[in-house]
Amino acid sequence: MKDQIVTLTTILRACAKWSVSNRPSESFCCQSGPSGIDYARGCEHWISLALITNDEQRRTVKVEVEERQMRKNPFTGRIADCVAYRTKYGQMYSGTAEDILDEPSVSRFEGKVQLILTSPPFPLNRKKRYGNHQGEEYIKWLVSFGHQFKKMLTPDGSIVIEVGNSWESGQPTMSTLAVRSLIRFLEENHLHLCQEFVWHNPAKLPTPAQWVNVERIRLKDNFTKLWWMAVNPRPKANNREVLQPYSEAMRHLLKTGKYNPGRRPSEHNIGKRSFLADNGGSIPGNVITLANTGSGDAYQLYCKEQSITPHPARMPCDLAKFFIKFLTNPADIVLDPFGGSNTTGAAAEELKRYWISIEPRDEYIEGSKGRFSAGLRKGNVEAR
User: Which class in CATH covers the domain with range 83-232+287-383?
Assistant: First the structure.
């Protein structure tokens, strides 16, 4: 009887795990049609995993489940005229986000995108080569995408936007334009701010050069903000997918089982067994430190071989992977409406998520093929 209770508890926990990360927009009992069927099948898969105690068998079943999901490739059929190239898991569209999001081959994904992960041209107070709006014009431009973004999302989908800092022209003071643009985008599109993240790039060059290098009156500006937003206050997310390795001290604690319990100055009361569970890693904070120094990666080598000027403002692939792993599952769809060098698409491809990227400049599209250089050699990248 005890074993049966344990098994039932394990099954219920497995169902809850799948339910939290994959629940449909309404109660399952009210669902009809494909969404309800998918929900039931998902619970069935997790029950199967719960009943298997052998780790190797569990891994095999999990892979089979993921492969079954991946068979539903959404990019079959004729390539649309606005598609620059297609890979196993995604499509790069040529054009502006304003136009392509209304294009039938993209609008058919309305309500199916799990994550919009993007880095729009930053709200700088001076024009850059890759194109950017300025001042109030930038804010209105960014806010205008909210309606289209919301239409594309699943009911529990997420939007993650990276926006860099800007400085007032001709003086050593920072502009509030980046923050104001995010606030307006959030409020005017009736979104929830799930969490704010900071990407700290320790390898970033000292800027603004005049105030940092020449006059030495400011410190180098080496972080950008990422806002995680959603229509639903509880979008799909799982921090177990982005755990960090335990520190040496924590590994020692788990090995010895010794630490000092009791009340801390912060008024938290630490129990005698609070830190003894090995959860597979530590939960990361919302400050992500990644050096963007990939000078010899496949993308830059390809650009050099093809005499293409690389995109000057590239997101590191590991940053994109972090949010894709955190906020999506395999076979989910990820959209980047300001694709640039297509870091988002490459990260999604590696993680077996379907992706859609949009970029108006031909040179950046051509260069982005270098992120799929292995596929190019094997003939797995299909271009128009």
Answer: alpha beta
